[in-house]
Amino acid sequence: MKTLFDKLSKWSLRQKVLLSIIICLIAPPTIAIQVSNYFTRDVLREQAVINAQESLDVANLYVTERMNSMIYMTNNIQFDNEMATVMKKLGQQPLDPALLVLEGKYITNKLETLVFSKDHMYISVLLPNGAYFTNYSGSEFNPQQFAEESWYSKLDQMTEYDIEWVGAHPNYIQSRSKTSPYLITMARALKSGDAKPYAYVILSAEEKTISDFFYKYAPTQKMILTDAAGTVFASADNQQIGAATAFPDYGPSEQQGSKIFTIHDQEYILLNKKLPFAGWHLISLVSYQNAIEKIQTIRTNDYLVQVLFLLVFIAILYWIISRIMNPLVILARVASQVRLGTLHVRADIRGTDEVGRLGQVFNQMLDHIESMIEQITEEQTRKRKLELELLQAQINPHFLFNLLNSIRMKIRMKGDRESADIISSLSKLLRMSINRNNECLPVHVEVEIVQHYVKLMNVRHNQKIQYEESVASNVLLEEIPRFTIQPFIENAFIHGLNQKYGHITLTIWKEDAFMYISVKDDGVGMGEETKHELNQALHREEHESKSRVNGIGLKNVYDRLQMTYGTSFRMDIHSDLHRGTEIVVKLPLSAKGEA
């Protein structure tokens, strides 16, 4: 609950007002609907059972009529005296083919008269001597194969009034097996008293006629026909035929009646009706929701109308509140953008009321802040340039450069070429320091400055350093700020090598839209703590601490590059104690000055 209130506290005023009004609109009808559902639940259940029972009763009438029709056909054959006389005559041994042809026409005509082709029923009359008569073609099925069935031997022990209900089995009429895969069959033995049967009557009806009726009459109701043991004889799902009943809480001993149970959070109505044929049952399973579908449709339409009007009212309400709250929303959005650093946005709020005047004052405040920031930025830029000029001015002035050139010429004229070259390097280094015309120089000029500087440092100290450089040809003409590389070489010599013998390697290359400068030494290196302090010193503001390197040190270079390239510039320091230090600088090749 506390978490919910915390989330609601972060909502805007408009959202809170809308939520409160919507709750007040939705709560009363919702409560009324729930109360109505509670009091009408039992009535709907009763009506649903009655509707399902009515459908089951109609299906019962159809199945009973179908079975009675089959019984009537066999009775018609059994109690036809003339037909009985013919069957007894034809069933004698030995079989007389000529008599079978002459007398058998009566039986064949009788069978065709009893069953119409549209009924999809198949009658077989078998005589004890192997003769048989059917209303279907013998090429479709040989009825003598019935003698191989387990139920066929039971017929001899039955009375003339008994019926053997075989149940469902695969269709033996090949031309109809795909359309109607199963048949429901009954069999009777025709006899007089206790005498042996003089004929056997086997009548089969297509199961599809029953399952089609189940589906067409009550498509939302699942009906099946089972025997007393619960084996399915007829169902709209052919895969269930011959299998045990899959309905929950149902067994062969289940009594007639109805029950309501739940499967996967859905309520179902189960109806069970016993048929007057060999203990067969007609079972129906219907979803409670489907049973009350018509009533639910009316109630649903009523709910939809209420919801529609509710949405219309909410839309109108939202429009009214938006008109009132929009100026505050705009002002809050602009304030959020200003908080992120976007100062050029303005609140377009018009009007003479309190909110309109607040928007005008807010815009004026932004104008004033933006003007102050521009002024401060300009002052800081000028300050940086003055500092750079001051740093550059610390190197000896022009007259030193001219004097050194004169000394170099005199020494060279006396034949001391080595000393003249050293003075030449110093002169060129001074020239670069004094010349302030160009803020940026090509890479090859910066590399040349480094070469002169290394030469002078080796003259100054007894132990010379080994300097190596690897500069890609595609970066030689790229421009970088003056004195970008030299401070890193100076730092490597003074702090990395401790002004002693060692190696310094300069590598410059280009990848994608960036140029990389690497200065690496094999000196004393730094531990993690020292490296961490150095990184903190580079990121401190000037008023917090001073760079520990005199002249154009690391701090000065870092600040100048950051001011020139903004966030696109990066400096990484990699160092291991007693193994050396490497400084890698990443510079963009375009868009200087982006912050």
Automatic annotation (TrEMBL):
Annotated GO molecular function terms are: protein histidine kinase activity
**Transmembrane parts of this sequence:** 303-321
Residue ranges of domain HAMP in the record: 322-374
Look up and give the membrane topology term: Multi-pass membrane protein
Look up the EC number in the record and give it. 2.7.13.3
Which SMART domains does this one have? HAMP (SM00304), HATPase_c (SM00387)
Which InterPro entries does its entry note?
A: Bact_2-comp_sensor_kinase (IPR050640), HAMP_dom (IPR003660), HATPase_C_sf (IPR036890), HATPase_dom (IPR003594), Sig_transdc_His_kin_internal (IPR010559)
PANTHER family assigned: SENSOR HISTIDINE KINASE YPDA, SENSOR PROTEIN KINASE HPTS
Q: What is this protein called?
A: Sensor histidine kinase
Q: Which organism is it from?
A: Paenibacillus filicis
